[in-house]
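User: I'm writing a tutorial on reading structure tokens. Could you give me a worked example: one chain, its sequence, then its tokens, then a sentence or two explaining what the tokens reveal?
Assistant: Sure. Here is the example chain.
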Amino acid sequence: MGKDTTDHTPSEAGGDQPPERIRYPENHIVAIINTDTEAARTVKALRAGGFLDSEVHVAAGQAEADALHAQTGRGGLADLAIRFAEFLGVSDDEMETKALYEQAMRDGRFVFVIDAPTEDRRNQAAKILREHGAHTVNYMGRLARTEIVPPPSERGV
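And here are its predicted structure tokens:
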């Protein structure tokens, strides 16, 4: 994995250990922070804002991007349908969003995944992330994604 600036970055799998299953981040805020300095400051601000270590996850680097790429985040028939759509070259909003986060990790940026099961937690996480320069911030609900801060390309940045 890439640079580990916090103790929240998932550790690399050891030699014979299978990669951890990545699941669709239901009821989570997902965002991109560009630099390790900004990422470290954001983790501190989230802690100060009442988020537990177990609620804040940071991923970065090629290994994390590869792990995200290899899985759909879904199980059962949904997994099969997504894989079939990918094979056919068909894309949807969920697949495009996943690709943005995957590319961010490949580019050396940091992807934050924050547990936010209530509206208050969602608003608090989003506020802290915006204050620390996060972009491509989304709330991943059960059935839909809510864009909080669009990617820079959609903001003319």
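What the tokens reveal: The first helix runs from residue 36 to 48. Residues 28-154 form a domain with the Alpha-Beta Plaits fold (CATH 3.30.70).
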